[in-house]
Amino acid sequence: MNHQLITEKQKSTLDFIIDYYKSKGYTPTLKEISNNFNISIRAAFDRVGALIRKNYITRNRGARTLVIRKEFIDDGAFIPLIGEISAGLPLESPENIDYYLPFDQSFFPEGDYFALNVKGDSMLGAGILPNDIVIIKKQNFARNKDIIVAMLEGETTVKRVFFEDQMVILKPENDKYPIIRRKYINILGCVVALLRRFQ
């Protein structure tokens, strides 16, 4: 089953429905969803409708008939898809998160992860194309030759890292781009996986 990206509001609604189900054994009504978020019944209906269209839940007839797909009760989790990262803001600040990617926790069993949309073609030689989504394990260190995400002058960059002569070298995988040399860099994490959309 394919699941689409969901927004912050949709994720918080799904989290509420799952938590409610786990605590009570049945799913909430639209009224209970609207009360929890202090929104109108119509707004709750719209949020639930979006989750149904994106294959996270289904609905039968009746008031308390939302059905959560099993994978989100047992092993479902989400990786935040980060947009523009502003200097000084934490990675998972709401201002930075565009959507959430669903994933199976058994695939990424340990650690914290985030995802980024790739801009530009500086990593073509590593098979990373423009508009790919890279999955990054959040950490502030790397090994020689890892592909990392670093913060430079308030912007993120994806490059292969080398440590030579007390310098940090960020090397693109495209000869059109210059090598970057710094004494220190802010490593946000290491690239561990890649998603590519063909449509």
Main sheet summary: 9 strands, mixed
Number of domains: 2
Could you give the order of strands across the largest sheet? 4-3-5-6-11-7-8-9-10
- Briefly, what CATH class of the largest domain? Mainly Beta
Tell me which CATH architecture of the largest domain applies here. Answer: Ribbon
Query: Structural class, from helix and strand content?
Result: alpha+beta
Mean pLDDT: 84
- Determine the N-to-C terminus distance: 17 Å
Order of helices and strands: HHHEEHEEEEEEEEE
Q: Would you write up a description of this structure?
A:
This protein is an alpha+beta fold. The chain contains four helices and eleven strands, in the order αααββαβββββββββ. The chain has two domains: 8-74, Orthogonal Bundle (Arc Repressor Mutant, subunit A), CATH 1.10.10; 77-195, Umud Fragment, subunit A (Ribbon), CATH 2.10.109. It has helices at residues 8-24, 30-37, 41-53, 70-74; strands at 57-59, 66-68, 76-82, 97-104, 113-117, 133-138, 147-152, 155-164, 167-171, 180-182, 186-195. The strands form two sheets. A nine-stranded mixed beta sheet has the order 4-3-5-6-11-7-8-9-10. A hairpin with a 2-residue loop joins strand 7 (147-152) and strand 8 (155-164). The mean pLDDT is 84.
